Fold each of these.
Amino acid sequence: MNYNWNWGIFFQPNPMGTGTYLDMLLSGLALTLKTAALAWVIALITGSIVGVMRTLPSKGANWFGFAYVEFFRNMPLLVQLFLWYFVLPELLPKAAGTWLKQLPNAPFWTAAIGIGFFMSARVAVQLQAGIGSLPRGQKMAATALGLTTVQAYRYVLLPMAFRIILPPLTSEFLNTIKNTAVAITIGLLELTGQARSMQEFSFQVFEAFTAATILYLLVNAVVVTGMRFLERWVAIPGYITGK
Amino acid sequence: MFGNLDFDVIRRALPYLFLEGMTFTLTLTGLAALGGLVFGTALALMRLSGFKILGRIAGIYVDFMRSLPLVLVIFWFYFLVPYIGQWVTGASRPISVGAFASSLITFIMFEAAYFSEIMRAGIQSISRGQPAAASALGLTYAQTMRYVVLPQAFRNMLPVLITQTIVLFQDTSLVYVLSITDFLGAASKVAQRDGRLVEMYLFAAIVYFTISCIASYGVRRLQARIAIIR
């Protein structure tokens, strides 16, 4: 193989003048984590609301939840990001559109919001399945005790449902982190983006992508381990995973 | 709001969008799903086989692929495949691989990891008595898998497999990062040439949405029809 390996490349200064190539990749990692964190907060909040709506005894709320999930699940994430980034500012009133386009860090906010809503549909489906997996008696008992619908969800259904769906939520969180790489297409210099620009500047393709790969694997391992602890901590006594 | 939009640009671009773009997207989706299913089934069989080492290798491969973003994997294979080709054919220089071949290899290798988990679940859903009965009838391991286990596993998992293929169909849009003319790539090229981003991206969104919606409706119908009553 006539490829010139040069593992020392990481400690050479990068052409942006922001330190070494390694610093460049680490700043990409930081941006990946920041984007993923904000997207995950959006996904959890909107996903929970929509997921609850799908289980409410109201035709309108069910229908809205169904339409919401179908809308965000049936378009590629890349297309959704393009819609947020290129299309939305044009469809808004002129002043709002201009303001949006001149926003500093526009790729970051677009990516976080776009990925957040994309993932919220998936969170909603998981939560709906979690609430659906609870025995009917729980809701009935809550009603019999005189709890209102809001109270029943707040004190009985949701605390159970969220614990049950913790493992699938972990993989959705990992998906959120991985999906931030799609934002490279709207110019966000997250980890994959930094690895790509390192490759373009230094021509050390395989070193750059190997480093990015290792960093993704590390993040993955940390999240999986952290969630294991969380799972054990909130486990419900009496369930298979319980104490 | 829609006042100064020119929807005629879409009509003019239709042949290019569908004959070139959508043909690429659908061919890539179909072949990648097929290849991913074959490799994925092989991985699942490795994982469930009695040989610990084979199972370990398959497990590592699946976990590795599933923890990387698809975009990064696309870049990896795009740069790696020429060198692998050189190594396989013994050429003196990295061989050039077309955009289609490169992305097809990427998606087969990537999707195999996801299909293998589905097939593993499918194989494990078969009751133990089935392979036991098969070997009592004198069937070899290969025959047991070929005639007894895999057909049932495939049938049980068909809705999930198709759902994964819909995800794959949407994910093929990511070849955009290699400037390949798939459906979204074609739409984006027209959009940039004519300065009509809003019209083209809205149209692309509607097309992806419609196809995925119809397909997932089909999956729901199928699920109701082939559900085995236990």
Note: Residues 21-55 of chain A form the longest helix (35 residues).
Amino acid sequence: MTTIHVNGRAHEVAVEADTPLLWVLRDTLGLTGTKYGCGIAQCGACTVLIDGEATRSCQVPVESVGNADIRTIEAIEEDAVGRKVVEAWVASQVPQCGYCQSGQVMAATALLKQTPQPTEADIQDAMTNLCRCGTYNRVASAIRQAAG
Amino acid sequence: MNSLQTLHARAAATLMDAPLESPAGAGTRVSNLSRRAFLGFGAGALVLGALLPPMPALAQAAAAPKPGTRVPAFLVIGKDNAVTLLSPFVEGGQGINTGLAQIVGEELDVHPSRFTVECAPPGADYAVINGLRMTGGSFSTRSSYDLMRRLGATARDMMIRAAAARLKVVPGSLTTDDGHVVHAASGRRLTYGELADEALALAPDEAVALRDPANFRYIRKPMDRLDVRAKSTGKAVYAIDQTVEGMLHAAVRHAPHLGTQPDALANEAAVAVMPGVHSVHRLPGAVAVAADSWWRARKAVEALEVAWSKPAPTGFETVAADYSSQGILAALKASTASGPLAETEGDVAAAFASAAKVIEAEYDAPYLAHGQLEPPSSIARFNPDGTLELWAPNQMPELFQSVAAQTAGLPPEKVILHSPTLGGFFGRHFLYGSSNPFLQAIQLAKATNRPVKVLWSREEEFRMDAVRPLSFSRFKAALDPQGRPTAIQVRTVGEGPLGRWFGAIFNGPVDSSAVEGIVAKPYAVPNRSMEYVKVPHPVTIAFWRSVGHSMNDYFYEGFFDEIADAGGRDPYELRLELLKDKPRHRALLETVARLSGGWKRGPYEAEGGKRARGVSMASPFGSETATVAEVSIEDGEVRVHNLWIAFDPGSIVNPAIVKAQVESAAALGLSATLFEDLSYEGGVRQSHNFDDYPILPRRAMPAVHVEIVESGAPMGGVGEPGLPGVAPAVVNAVAALTGQRIRSLPLAKAKIGV
């Protein structure tokens, strides 16, 4: 048994120690808002916040998270910055297919929590999640709106 | 294992025995498709041939009920006045759910934001595209616009007549107001929900009047999408997120060479006792492990030591041990076969004989993966009542239902198909034989007697995705002394997805999906000859956003600039001159020039160094585009700073969604232009994931400026047309900047310097 702390609650999970956090969230806890895209930390669809850091959960063995505070998209509107990001996402009509957007919203929330007034370079550095629908420009404008 | 093998054999036998509707060319088709059926990738074409009559009979076959007209098939209005629209189409990011709500809501008089839109189950009512149902070809809005307006108006009229009977007043004394029927004289209001039972029992009035477009409140307005909040908060549910009680998770490993089979599993017993493992399976061309979680299933299937059967050593009949992208391209180039003419006009030979100058060039483009971010998955469950229930990403519900039924040995009406929201598609979820996971889910559910969810890892998706065909065309042009082209001759060698998968119904001599973008160009070139030589690929080929246009407009419009250069003409001015009798195209070209601040080719100095621009035009899916790209070279790589796109789809429903779709198509077009190449070497694909198949990242995304032009021409497509103009505009800009003419994509493999 491993205990992990997700969205403010402790969960006991019976999985192998090397199981990626992504699959514990999705299959064990049923938190399917966090997406599987590539499994090799290239696309960012599985981004969650671990102690506030945007982290690609497909490459995080569950044994490594310890008592860290894990936040997923399911709790995004419990967070003041997260709420602003979501509202900006809606106002800018960012998503198309939407599959990458949980990860984009989490990455944007982490950026704005650490850097409330990001420069273009900050956005470029922080927002490396892939989007096959090409919503990159709207993602950036939503971040600027949420910051403003 | 035995039951699975039997099942597969039965499915294969059924497929091979399927009668072909068209007598023309049946002999070659049968042998060809039988071979493909053995290889496991012929199911789609064959079953479609069995399902559907040839084109002329389609309208008759679909005669009753006339698709798109039966109100109760499309609208469910609850007592609480909640409106659910059952859509013929699958939402995958293109915004069709919102567009349909606007169209129906406009005539029904219900605000679009109050609609819930769901993909309808299989049914004849939804075959709204010329008797077919699919989500593709940028057909959704243009095929259903008139139907859905009329449906909304018909339903509104039924509400009014039901209210008139209830209130004992004449219908003419009633009006509607956002889901209510209003009797102004008495101030009485009834909700549609209160009236729905009575209204839907009335006979529809087929002559009901439609709203005057001058008074539209929803259509042509940039309304918010219905799904954006759910997609911004992780609440949207895709196939991959679906679960059913008691299901097993299955992970799959496919044969390294398409068409080879698992011969022996050296460590099956050891894998069978790994944590959580339920069972180990051999499937056609694959092995699978079912377990209590997908991660455990995946670890187990990857631990399997599999001996695979050997591919053919060489040849192009199958994916042989020596199959390569270079090899097939060389074969396409070397072909001396002649083929039918896709387009012919004037006297090409005479024009070349009297030409002031003749130029020739060869263009090619690689195989491409769809790369939709949601990896494919499917759930199959056999229910106690004898039905098979399926959750499967798809763009053609009735076809998937029919193939599932054949695989399971059930009649189609015993298959309940759910068509979930797609996490991107771009053509990925048509029926492509062994490239769809739902057949494996059915086979494993049958073998385990449990519901099974099959999910392909990204690596398996790169192995099995059906690909945009590698393509080749040879161009030749005759120029007059003024630098105008007097003749263009094109030889296209290869295969298109329409012929592969829909050959049974679209069975003309020329596969339009192989030549679109090369034929039917708007330019006044008096003598033309476009030949199409079919050379089948052994790999699984696919529709990929904008299909043949995705490479052919690059070929043609790139070559157009070569003509301009050879004749000493400016490529923009030459286009304008050759469009002098095409006011729609000329206006669009002038629009994109204005949008980009006036045409200038360059090179010119800009912030960070020299830049130049290229221009292109395309006529995809009933729409027209004109594109200008601005590029520079940074560290030997092409950097695209701006794309200006003037887009004329005739008329539109939602300008915000149209712009978003054009931006999105432009991004995918640029991704293919700069980076993408799913190459084969030694019979296997060389890309495995997004680390060795780079797709457009944020840092390479240019500013995209879109101007919509509504010329009033018949409504064209929206989802795909923004793509084809990007590659030629970029490549033409690179040529203007560097003098280098790139005739083979992607640009990443070219050495480029100023």
Note: Chain A is about 35% helix and 15% strand.
